[in-house]
Structures are given as C-alpha cells and as structure tokens.
Structure prediction request, 77 residues.
Amino acid sequence: MKKIQILGTGCAKCEKLAANAKQAAENCGLEYELIKVSDLNEIMDFGVMTTPALAVDGKVLITGKVPSPADIERMIG
Prediction:
C-alpha cells in the first residue's frame, strides 16, 4: 500500500493537490492511504519550504505546485 502525503496548511492549492493525487491513485488502481500533513514542523522535517508538496512513502516528489492527475500518475504509477 502506498502512503500518499499532502504537505500543506489546508489552503485551496493543498486541497486541489489532494483531490488530484486521489484521482491519480484511483486511476492507477493503487491501494493507497492519503494523509494530509498540516503541522509546519512535520512539513519542515521533510525539508519542504514551499507548499503544497506531494510525498509518496516519505519521499517528496514535488513542491510548490499542483500537478494534474495525469502528471501525478506518471510519478506514482
């Protein structure tokens, strides 16, 4: 099971990234757990300075932008 983490404070871009990541995981047929990380100290532990960010299994894949579901599929599929 993949652990998909959305790093951000809950802003509109963070919510859009979460929706896109969920759609991408479902399109790929993945078993996944979607976790929203909003604690700033926890986000900084990932080394992320710009949100929103997407991490999969603890590895940061993208920061500071909201990729499309298709782009996320290529990253996680």
The chain has one domain: 2-76. Residues 26 and 32 are 9 Å apart (CA to CA).
